[in-house]
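Protein 1 of 2
SEQ + STRUCT:
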Amino acid sequence: MKALANSYLQDGQKHQILTFALEEVNQNADVKGFVNPPDGILRLGDIVLCWPLVLEEASRDEMLVDEKVCELVNHGVEHLFGRDHE
């Protein structure tokens, strides 16, 4: 996770989750959209969780690990849909 964060964010922060949208860009109009492959399955992108931080946060928040994973994956999907923290 540290290597991914350093490569893509260069912010020196710990991240429990990173998302990478799988988008196609129209070079003529700068239009972005999700990749629609021939098999018809919409692929939004990737969600990467840092397992040690997931365990640490679940313990701190007194949650089951499964619940914390679900919370973080939902958060990641929101990011893939383009919703930010602000």
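Protein 2 of 2
SEQ + STRUCT:
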Amino acid sequence: MSISIAQSRQQLSALIAAAQQQPQVITNRNKPVAVLVSAEYFARSQAAVKPVDDSFYAQVQQLRETFPPQDDTGLTVPDTSARQAPWQRANDFAGPV
């Protein structure tokens, strides 16, 4: 339903009642300027428009708080300081040097 601003002033209670059923478009010189919706519809719309990045980040944070990272796998980190580069390793095909 579409209603002008002047009509909406005169019939506000009827407009609010109609908005409980479906959104009501308010016009100014036949151009839509506003939409009146029920509070329940507005709350559902706001929940649906929640930013994806914020909600994903919040979920990751919640998971981190619930399950804090633990390094108890029992594996040790190998010492890579003594590791030789491939060009420093002995070549099995070259024979003794």
